[in-house]
Amino acid sequence: MGKLDGKIALISGGTSGIGAATAKLFQAEGATVIVTGSSAQSVEAARAELPGVEAIVSDASDVVATKTLVDQVTAAHGRIDVLFVNAGIARFAPLDQVDEAFFDAQFDTNVKGAFFLVKHAAPKIPEGGAIILTASVAGSSGGFGGGTVYGATKAAVRSLGRTFATELVARRIRVNTISPGPILTPILDKNGFTPAQKQGFVEGAQTRVPLGRIGQPEEVARAALYLAADASYTTGAELFVDGGLIDL
């Protein structure tokens, strides 16, 4: 018997990396899983990599598309028991190279998209349901060069997690946030990292992270499962999956 038997789970940004690893784990635990991707190409790849998982093209930054997504999922499945708001983008540039388009792209996806997905989905989540948001250690650390905008978006997501938890507690919907540290995901490739830069990222994590290594998507997925299924007395919390980077 799985921890999520009979549950309907929607994972935004679920076609690769943390989202895909979580989709596999949720499915293995008995859930019916729906994931979203930002392009037809990513969705087709997910359908091949995640047999039995429903994959839908949906632009996380588009408020209308977000509502359409929720309507589509609930028309097919009747409800959403677990919502994992994982879609996000990470782009880095020094302050003097940040323009309005760079700023808006990250806030539109990481903050506005997260807010409206929860707004549209919340009425479709029954009592006892769970919402999980993906933030980042970048939202609570001292910051790093080139990460001003990204860090600010993740700080906003942390805030949303706490305030959503307060607003939805009367309906017994738990809202919690995961803040990963350095995780080896395809986002590095999407940012155009060269092999040397990617290796430098991994080696940098080995130096900075107290546990001495970079994290894997499956380790974040297990944290998401805990918040979705086991953390029945937890809401408004933030779980750092960062090898001790923030606290040690």
Q: What does the model show?
A:
With about 250 residues, the chain is α/β, with parallel strands linked by helices. Helix 4 (about 100-120) links the parallel strand 4 (about 80-85) and strand 5. The longest helix is centred in the middle third of the chain and has 22 residues, at about 100-120. It is globular. It has a 7-stranded parallel sheet with strand order 3-2-1-4-5-6-7, with helices on both faces. Helix 1 (about 15-30) crosses helix 8 (about 215-230) and helix 4 runs parallel beside helix 5 (about 150-170). It has helices at about 15-30, 40-50, 65-75, 100-120, 150-170, 185-190, 195-210, 215-230; strands at about 10, 30-35, 55, 80-85, 130-135, 175-180, 240. Helices cover about 45% and strands about 15% of the residues. It has 8 helices and 7 strands.
